[in-house]
Structures are given as structure tokens and as C-alpha cells.
Amino acid sequence: MGYRSLAPYLRPIYIPWVCASLTVSILAVSLPLSVLEHGRSYGSISLVMGAGGVGAALGALRVGVLTDRWGSARVAAGGLAVITASCCLLSTTTIIALLVAAQLAIGRGVVGVMLSRQTVLTSTVSKGLRGRAMSLMGGSWRLSVLVGTASGGVLYDLVGDRWTFMTA
To answer: What Cα–Cα distance (Å) separates residue 148 from each residue in 27, 123, 143?
Structure first.
């Protein structure tokens, strides 16, 4: 029983997980650059970037309730939809209040994807594989953060902030 026995879980658990973490890491590089480039202060950058964490913290309890009520697949799909819509909003505005609102929503969407995928993992993966499954989640998060931050910077240089946000 090795990591190959986790292959059936790639699509339902790991792909949404990696998509959410790639988005967050692309934005971690490109969003502060964009805010600064549009003449805003470092305080504005802090406000915008901190909003993602606030959104995740505020959304965590609600996500648990929704996962119970609607099921983890719907919560994950909803979280990915919220992340997508928020990235589209980021690509169309430079107004700080809207950037903060988008980041709040992204934080909630990310926590929705993360908690729903962990719920699926703990309910479907056998106890003997659960440690490997969780370590694969952690490893895929770290790898996608590496890839996302690198690609976020490269994309920002090549195509600018708007298309980088759309890519995220």
C-alpha cells in the first residue's frame, strides 16, 4: 500500500486542492505588485493581502456547516466558483475596497475547497492510508506554492496584472 493506492483520489481531492493553492500563490506575488504599481501605499497592500486571511478565518466555521448541509463536492465547486469570480473582479478594478472584497471572497473560497477536500479525505481514505494522503496534500500544497509564486512573477512580467489575475 503505497502512494499509488491514492490515485483514485487525484481528481476529487487533489486537483481542486492544487487549483486553490495555485491561485493563492499566484496572487501572493502579483496582487501586491499591482497595488503598488497603481500608486497605492504599502498600507493598502497590507489591507488587501490581509483580507484573504480574514475571509478564510470568517468562512471556516460556515464552511463546516455548509459541508454538512450541502455535501463536500458542492462546497468545493462553490469555493472554486467564488475564487474564479473574485479573480475576475481583481482583473477589472484598482479600487482598494473592491480588491479587499475580492480577497475576502477568495479567502472564503479557498477555505471552502480546503476543508471540503479534507472532509472527503477523512471519510473515504482508509485509516492505513490517511497519513500518506495527508502528507500528499501538504506536499502538493508546497509544490503548488513554489510553482504559483514563480509563475505569478513571470506572468506579471510578461502579460501584466490583469491577465495574471485572469490566469489565477
So the answer is: 8, 29, 8
CA distance 61 to 79: 14
Evaluate whether 104 touches 52 at the Cβ level (below 8 Å): yes
CA 50, CA 69: separation in Å to the nearest integer?
29
pLDDT, mean of residues 100-118: 94
Distance CA 78, CA 105 (A): 11
Give yes or no for residue 1 having a pLDDT over 70.
no
Q: How confident is the model at residue 10 (pLDDT cuts 50, 70, 90)?
A: confident
**Percent of the chain with pLDDT strictly greater than 90:** 65
Residue 140 CA to residue 14 CA, distance in Å, equals 8
How many Å apart are CA 124 and CA 127, to the nearest integer?
Answer: 9
% of the chain with per-residue pLDDT over 70: 98
Cα(16)–Cα(149) distance, integer angstroms: 18
With residues binned 3-state (H G I as helix, E B as strand, rest as coil), the percentages for the chain, rounded to 5, are 90, 0, 10
Chain centre to alpha carbon of residue 122 = 20
